[in-house]
């Protein structure tokens, strides 16, 4: 659509890009400044008096938080991919009594706001001694990937029958057909779900906030929020920590942007 | 062979077949349920069961530790008659939602229109607009917290360059909410942009060609072709954005903790405090169910009203 000329389009797009990136650029440059120069008047967005030692200081504090974030993201991604792809495969390609009702019931659960079951879940976990452990941050999530199952089902439905039939003639077991023949055909959906799950696990605030009280179990983003008064007392250190918490996410997003966007549009408008 | 023997053999083979079929079907059922067993167990244990507990808890006075005391509908009546904070957080949430939905969808549309044109570097711009959406709220909340510092923050620093004396932002009861809304919009725009961009790229070309022949100006094409064709996407966004805005929590927690006073305390933040800070599990559960009713009712209404404005080709 040619509503404006190309030059003015670039001008407008650049202005928007500045507005969207400036806070992130400021975060990085603040993380590299001496504490006294973090907030300056007039405000500066580009690094001045670069002081790399901020990162040295932060790296004394955060390896354990970083590891917790990585570990939980890994558990969630692998677990959800396995559980959702198995269920998605069964709902799309296997015939069994109660299949369609089970699928409808699963989808129906997604209309209940999470907070309605998160409160009693907390009480239950309190009773079985799971509070202040990392189990609540992955076990319930890995075992309830309704949205990912929906995506996987859509993806398995598009695979032609011939492949599956060839496997049956070769005498492969149902699990063999799922694992060796069908699963490799759904790589784009697996990638989309993997990226979504990674981001969701990495950026989760509510779960770690209510469940984790021990420092050595906390995830990086939530540790920044919880221990800002204790450890991240300087703005520059807080911004260095924030930068480190953002970098893996941006990296994953840049690498897998295509799948991520596919995932959004797939669930968004073609359901 | 006589007729009798033929019928006999057919009968026995039928019998064998049905037994085989039954065995095969049983095996099929078992295999199917084995494949879905992890998610079925999970949903029953971590959703259905807690949901039942939550419904029961909403009718009790319960701190989650000692025995719950049945109080009937008292929690629900208390909310509306005896809890000014409930009403205030409800109003704050409506304010937040009504301001952020049109802004995210509106600016998202502008960005989608800009990115829909195949020009050099468009991938960079699209990624830039989308970056805040994937960034965690703690990092974002902190950055903007310092941006909004009244005395030496970035926003008032920039405003003072223009000769404007900026407000107190997060420490002002009237400016804190607009500030939080601004950040939320800034972070959230990527989602509607991607949805609308996908919509724009899927629009049929015929309409535009005939419109050009008829001499329709660019803005007329936007107003009378593009926007009507995108209405299904707008409906989808209105529904999903309502659901997510009404449950905003992270930015509020990081930036204001509901303050100053209760000026930015929103519905989920209030539930969070009741359940996890004050130990009012019964009351918080009742609030969660009111939230469910509000979301379900508004979603249903939006679905019903679509006839009046959504255009399907």
UniProtKB/TrEMBL annotation, chain A:
Which residue numbers delimit the ABC transmembrane type-1 domain? 66-256
- Phylogenetic lineage: Bacteria, Bacillati, Actinomycetota, Actinomycetes, Propionibacteriales
The protein's matches in PROSITE patterns, at most eight in alphabetical order, are given as:
ABC_TM1
**CDD domains in UniProt:** TM_PBP2
Where is it located?
A: Cell membrane
Q: Which InterPro entries match?
A: MetI-like, MetI-like_sf
Species of origin: Kribbella pratensis
Q: What is this protein called?
A: Carbohydrate ABC transporter membrane protein 2 (CUT1 family)
Membrane topology per the entry is: Multi-pass membrane protein
Q: Which residues cross the membrane?
A: 12-32, 73-92, 101-123, 231-256
Write one Pfam family the protein is assigned to: BPD_transp_1
What is one process in the GO biological process aspect for this record?
transmembrane transport
Q: Which family does it belong to?
A: Belongs to the binding-protein-dependent transport system permease family.
Q: Which GO CC terms are listed, alphabetically? A: plasma membrane
Q: Which UniProt keywords apply?
A: Cell membrane, Membrane, Transmembrane, Transmembrane helix, Transport
TrEMBL record, chain B:
**TM region(s), chain numbering:** 32-59, 94-116, 128-148, 175-200, 281-301
Annotated Pfam families:
BPD_transp_1
Q: Which UniProt keywords apply?
A: Cell membrane, Membrane, Transmembrane, Transmembrane helix, Transport
How does this protein lie in the membrane? Answer: Multi-pass membrane protein
Instruction: List locations, semicolon-separated.
Output: Cell membrane
A Gene Ontology biological process term: transmembrane transport
GO cellular-component terms in the record? plasma membrane
Q: Establish whether keyword Membrane is in the entry.
A: yes
The ABC transmembrane type-1 domain covers 90-302
- Superkingdom, according to UniProt? Bacteria
Q: Which Gene3D superfamilies match?
A: MetI-like
Its family?
A: Belongs to the binding-protein-dependent transport system permease family.
Q: What is this protein called?
A: Carbohydrate ABC transporter membrane protein 1 (CUT1 family)
Q: Which organism is it from?
A: Kribbella pratensis
């Amino acid at each position: 659509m040619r509503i404006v000329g190309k030059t003015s389009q670039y001008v407008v797009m650049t202005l928007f890009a500045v507005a969207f990136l400036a806070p992130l650029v400021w975060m990085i440059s603040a993380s590299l400044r001496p504490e006294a120069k973090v907030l300056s008047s007039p405000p500066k967005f580009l690094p001045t008096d670069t002081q790399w030692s901020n990162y040295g200081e932060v790296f004394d504090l955060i390896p354990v938080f970083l590891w917790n974030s990585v570990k939980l993201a890994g558990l969630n991604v692998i677990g959800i991919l396995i559980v959702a792809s198995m269920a998605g495969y069964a709902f799309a390609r296997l015939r069994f009594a109660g299949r369609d009702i089970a699928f409808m019931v699963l989808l129906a659960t997604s209309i209940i706001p999470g907070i309605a079951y998160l409160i009693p879940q907390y009480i239950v976990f309190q009773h079985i001694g799971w509070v202040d452990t990392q189990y609540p941050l992955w076990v319930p999530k890995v075992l309830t990937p309704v949205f990912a199952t929906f995506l996987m089902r859509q993806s398995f439905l598009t695979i032609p029958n011939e492949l599956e039939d060839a496997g049956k003639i070769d005498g492969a077991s149902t699990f063999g057909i799922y694992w060796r023949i069908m699963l490799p055909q759904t790589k784009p959906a697996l990638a989309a779900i993997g990226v979504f799950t990674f981001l969701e696990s990495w950026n989760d605030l509510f779960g770690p906030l209510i469940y984790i009280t021990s420092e050595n179990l906390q995830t990086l983003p939530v540790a920044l929020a919880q221990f800002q008064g204790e450890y991240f007392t300087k703005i520059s250190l807080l911004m260095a920590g924030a930068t480190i918490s953002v970098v893996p996410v941006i990296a994953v997003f840049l690498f897998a942007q295509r799948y991520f966007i596919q995932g959004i549009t797939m669930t968004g408008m073609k359901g | 062979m006589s007729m009798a023997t033929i019928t006999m053999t057919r009968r026995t083979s039928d019998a064998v077949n049905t037994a085989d079929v039954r065995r095969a079907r049983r095996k099929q059922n078992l295999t199917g349920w084995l494949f879905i067993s992890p998610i079925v167990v999970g949903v029953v244990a971590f959703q259905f069961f807690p949901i039942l507990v939550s419904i029961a808890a909403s009718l009790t006075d319960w701190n989650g530790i000692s025995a719950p005391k049945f109080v009937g509908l008292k929690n629900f009546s208390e909310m509306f008659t005896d809890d000014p904070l409930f009403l205030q957080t409800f109003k704050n949430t409506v304010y937040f939602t009504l301001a952020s939905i049109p802004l995210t969808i509106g600016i998202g549309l502008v960005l989608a229109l800009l990115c829909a044109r195949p020009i050099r570097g468009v991938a960079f711009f699209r990624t830039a607009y989308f970056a805040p959406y994937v960034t965690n709220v703690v990092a974002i909340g902190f950055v903007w917290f310092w941006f909004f510092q009244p005395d030496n923050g970035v926003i008032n620093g920039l405003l003072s360059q223009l000769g404007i004396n900026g407000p107190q932002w997060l420490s002002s009861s009237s400016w804190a909410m607009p500030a939080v809304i601004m950040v939320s919009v800034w972070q959230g725009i990527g989602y509607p942009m991607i949805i609308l961009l996908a919509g724009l790229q899927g629009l049929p070309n015929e309409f535009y060609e005939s419109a050009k022949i008829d001499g329709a100006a660019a803005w007329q094409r936007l107003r009378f072709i593009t926007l009507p064709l995108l209405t299904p996407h707008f409906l989808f966004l209105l529904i999903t954005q309502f659901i997510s805005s009404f449950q905003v929590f992270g930015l509020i927690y990081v930036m204001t903790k509901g303050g100053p006073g209760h000026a930015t305390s929103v519905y989920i933040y209030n539930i969070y405090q009741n359940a996890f800070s004050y130990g009012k599990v019964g009351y918080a559960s009742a609030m969660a169910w009111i939230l469910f009713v509000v979301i379900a009712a508004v979603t249903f209404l939006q679905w019903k009203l679509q006839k009046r404005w959504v255009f399907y080709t």
